Amino acid sequence: MSVDTTIVVPTIGRDTLRRLLESLDAATGGTPDVIVVDDRREGEPLDLPAHVRVLASGGRGPAAARNLGWRAATTEWISFVDDDVIVAPDWIERLTEDLASADDDVVAVQGRLTVPRPAGRRLTDAERSTASLETAQWITADLSVRRRALRRVSGFDERFTRAYREDADLGLRLSAHGRIVAGRRTVVHPFRSDGTWFSLRQQRGNADDVLMRRLHGPDWRERAGAPRGTLRRHQLTVMTAVAGVLLAAAGRPQLAGLLAGAWATLTARFAWARIAPGPRDQDEVRRMALTSVAIPFAAVRWWLDGLVRDRDAVPRRRLPDAVLFDPDGTLVHDVPYNREPARVAPIDGVHEALARLREAGVPTGVVSNQSGVARGLIAPDELEAVNRRVEELLGPFGTWQVCRHAPEDGCECRKPQPGLVLRACDELGVDVERCVVVGDIGADVEAAAAAGATGVLVPTRQTLGAEVAAAPRVEPDVLSAVRSILRGHW
User: Fold this and answer.
1) Are 219 and 243 found together in one domain?
2) Residues in domain Glycosyltransferase 2-like (predicted)?
3) H/E element, 38
4) 326 labelled catalytic
5) Rounded to an integer, what distance in angstroms lies between the CA atom of residue 201 and that of residue 301?
6) How far is CA 326 from CA 67, 245, 450, in A?
7) How confident is the model at residue 121 (pLDDT cuts 50, 70, 90)?
8) 148-166: per-residue pLDDT in tens?
9) Does 104 lie in the same domain as 232?
10) What is the pLDDT of residues 344-378, one digit of tens each?
11) Pseudo-torsion of CA 169, 172, 175, 176, nearest 10°?
């Protein structure tokens, strides 16, 4: 039996990737399509087997990498696997059975994860963190999701830029549309050495927890099966330390001494809670003592960072699946039939507008009429050079859809026809009804309406008064349009 799934593996080039691919090759039951998404910002190309497709996501985090991978696939199921696991010898065979037995109301099938224990000693603090993955809910170390379900929820939320909480966020959104069930297949997650300060780096997750609360409400932990955590105790520890320092500076040594003692007690209890279940050897005790002093301050620092960073975050359902832009007159100053990349100049505010969309995890694309090609006013390679310059200046877009026909050709792609918008949404893997098109003339908003998308007009001096009057939404500039869209007004 063949397996109707594509395996998507995000990676930052760790040595464990080759071990995973070798275990996939050794597994019996078929040869599925494998896409590896390289999420490094730079580096030598990955040297991988020829049958593995490699895409590059530019260091935007595992959520963005997985989105790029599943949108490049065409199979009914997408199976996400992390690059630091090893699949069991019968994994593909069991995966096939898991997916074949899934009822129509099943949106995802979770694999089973095991963490091998060392013999003859207790687990260290870092190892206990890894071992907790065995009971975690919806982890993407091994998770298969129906492609139509991913499209319905717009995939992973790219505001989660680390390998933390992006899986819980996806699980909460998927579970609103169907069941997530446990499968029979198994992957092994070995321990890895993360260094002395591993637990300190983990405190960045407090910022992600703030985002989870913004997006899913105060009961998100109960619904996602996430433990409560120790942030409140860390807040108390930090408040005690800060108050003690302030009292000492104010010349109140007795009260400052009492608070210093309280801080020492809270820190000692926290350290012992981490030391007691571990091996208690000299190295582990030293690590726990050092990090237990620093962790409360790091936790509060990242919690405050999340409060500021995500103060305006809105739930994913209120964001569009994608925003498409007409380029000339909207993203860059309009130079009719431009043949020279040097003449490409972004409009004020566009850089910030695109940055805000990308930070919010909203895919972007370009839909462009270029009749100058059909008329012989600009050569195809000249147009490609100009478009490349746009991306050099403004960053990558998820899709470019260009109509090179003349108006008299009667094609279905030239705006105000819907073809460009429909093709862009299909390539991005998004629902056109949850897409926004931003442009500077009536043909842009008309194409959006014809496709079933939302149109937003950003007028320029060339925009006709009748076009402004007829537009369903009008904004003074691109940045204002994006701000409104990200507030859920679209």
Assistant:
1) yes
2) 6-123
3) strand 33-38
4) yes
5) 12
6) 23, 57, 16
7) very high
8) 999 888 899 999 999 999 9
9) no
10) 999 999 999 999 999 888 999 999 999 999 999 99
11) -110
Cα(125)–Cα(284) distance, rounded to whole angstroms? 8
CB 174 within 8 A of CB 136: no
Residue 357 and residue 239: Cα distance in Å, rounded? 36
The 8-class DSSP code of residue 345 comes to -
* pLDDT above 90 coverage of the chain, percent: 88
Residues 340 and 430 in one domain: yes
pTM of the model: 0.80
DSSP 3-state assignment of 90?
Answer: coil
- Token pair, residue 462, equals 């060339």
Per DSSP, the residues of 116-166 read PPPTTSPPPHHHHHHHGGGG-SS-TTEEEEEHHHHHHTTSS-TT--SSSSH
Please tell me the distance from the alpha carbon of residue 202 to that of residue 302, in angstroms, as a whole number: 10
Indicate if 70 and 179 belong to the same structural domain.
Answer: yes
Residue written as token pair 């996400």: 80
| Domain carrying residue 393 | 319-486
- Are 468 and 346 contained in the same domain? yes
Catalytic residue among 208, 326, 440, 444: 326
Of 414, 420, 331, give the one whose Cα is nearest residue 374.
414
| Claim to verify: residue 296 and residue 346 sit in the same structural domain | no
Catalytic residue among 84, 328, 440, 444: 328
pLDDT tens-place string over residues 384-402:
999 999 999 999 999 999 9
DSSP 8-state code for residue 174: H
**pLDDT, tens digit, 9 for 90 and up, residues 37-48:** 999 998 889 999
Give CA torsion, residues 420, 422, 427, 430, to 10 deg. Answer: 140
The DSSP output letter for 46 is: P
Mark whether 92 and 14 lie in a shared domain. Answer: yes
- Grade residue 313 by pLDDT with cuts at 50, 70 and 90: confident
Q: Is residue 328 among the annotated active site residues?
A: yes
Residue where the block lists tokens 């100009």 = 386
Q: How far apart are CA 249 and CA 417, in angstroms?
A: 71
Confidence at 30, pLDDT banded by 50, 70, 90: confident
Residue 451 pLDDT greater than 80, yes or no: yes
Tokens encoding 75? 């199979």
C-alpha to C-alpha distance for 368 and 403, rounded to whole angstroms: 6
Query: CB of 61 within 8 A of CB of 161?
Result: yes
Domain tally, the chain: 3
